[in-house]
From TrEMBL:
Domain Response regulatory: 6-123
Compartments reported by the entry: Cytoplasm
Protein's recorded name: Response regulator transcription factor
Gene Ontology biological process terms from the UniProt entry: phosphorelay signal transduction system
Record keyword Phosphoprotein present: yes
Family annotation (PROSITE patterns): HTH_ARAC_FAMILY_1 (PS00041), HTH_ARAC_FAMILY_2 (PS01124), RESPONSE_REGULATORY (PS50110)
Species for this entry: Paenibacillus agri
Amino acid sequence: MSELYRVLVVDDELLVRQGVKHILNWEQHGFCIVGEASNGKEALEMIAELSPHIVLTDVVMPVMDGEELTRLIKHSWPDIEVIVLSSFSEFDYVRSTFQSGVSDYILKPHLETKMLLSVLERTVERLPAGLKRKPQADYTITLNQVLEKLIDRYEVEIDQTMLAEWFPYQKYYIMGTAVDEGEQLLESLQALISEMTLYPLPVNSIPRHPELRTYVVNIGQNAEAENILLSKLKLLYPSSVTDSGDFVWALSGPFHSLDQLGGTFHRSFLPLLSYRFFLPVPMVLAPSELPHFEKVIRASASLNDTALHALMEHIRRLQLEEGFGVLYQFIAQQSKSYNTDVFEFKSLIGNLIFNVIQLLGTMNMSSDALNEAKYSYFKAIEEAGHVTDIITLLEQFRTQIDRSIHEATSSFHDGNPNMKLLLDYIDKNYTEPITLTEMAKQFHFNPSYLSSFFAAHHHEGFKEHLNRVRIDKAADLLRGSDHSISEIGSMVGYADHSYFCKVFKKNTGISPSQYRRQYYTRVEKEQG
């Protein structure tokens, strides 16, 4: 068998790279793809390691584009031939690459098997004589190539005789196992199950689970051994996850044809791994072992429309226990729906932390330490492997903002005993038509001095504080009473109904009627 021409594919779009890989049987025509890169910088590193004969590259890419890549290739490796992939809009850009020594180009909209093969054959003719190869006559597709095509969800014709040699049994599974436990687990399984064969799947590192290695498992099937693989795994390791949250193993449901490999991997196995984030830690990670699934509102809709608003309202009132209670209740509800998108959930938690810190800043309740800590919170959220990590993080966050609020309020009140009297007076008399002038008379202050004193020793001015107290009380009544909105406005000190609605919306972002409607809608959903 003659040596194959080595080809490196460079494109920042994964789908394009996959399309190029599977558009033809490369080995059958004397070529093999030795690597993939997503930009010119990665490509240069791989060229030094893999020594390809041909580089097939996109033009417009991040970090280093195809034009710069071509120039550097021809400077350092003049014998390597370069073929450019281009879209119509990039054609003028492609012309400049020919000045650097490009062999040929292919327009992406016209990329098809015959054209690519024709361009490759023309490019081979440009290679130095010493690198020429004889046509490949005895090519046979390998098991690894078959699995790679199936995982990428491309159709592939499989010789049934070869298939029977590779996988002689009737039932298939996909199994993932952690590196540190992998060899021991596989050896133990093979010792327990005689009719079984395993083969590693040619997949890239799985996002958020880089330590996991995946295998296609082929196992015999009979009436007594329907669940033999799962039962043996549970015998070896009762839980598929360690106490520290690392995977020992994960197992897909069974499938009965190798053609179903790609669909099972993408629609069953990968989602199964993501469920781990919300499921209890001592959990067997297999479809038949999953707990009852509860459908809940999508995280983004639920948090943005109800929990986030409720939390921010409690923070404005400095009611941390109630606010975080709402948040923990939301997280518990999402955990029941373990197919919640993990990335979306983490993004919402990060957004929540950012908004709380911003709100505390507007209330003069934040601190430099809290502002600096938000970046470490964002990083910890991104790296969290389980929902319990998020809860622990939020508890730390609550402790820190509690400390920040305490420091801020202490600085407001220290040395100003009158400040507490002023705030207590407002809390007791907010239902009355309080004015700055009347309050100044009550405490024997000049109105101008009282206004300045209030602003200097509190996180908000007199008018803002009075309105906030009244709106907080109005919100309590909207949630806990049957009084009409106009009655509630009067009960908290607003004689003018339209002015009450205006102030309420300014403070909460929604009208009193919308607030009441959203609250009861949320209650009905939680109870239903």
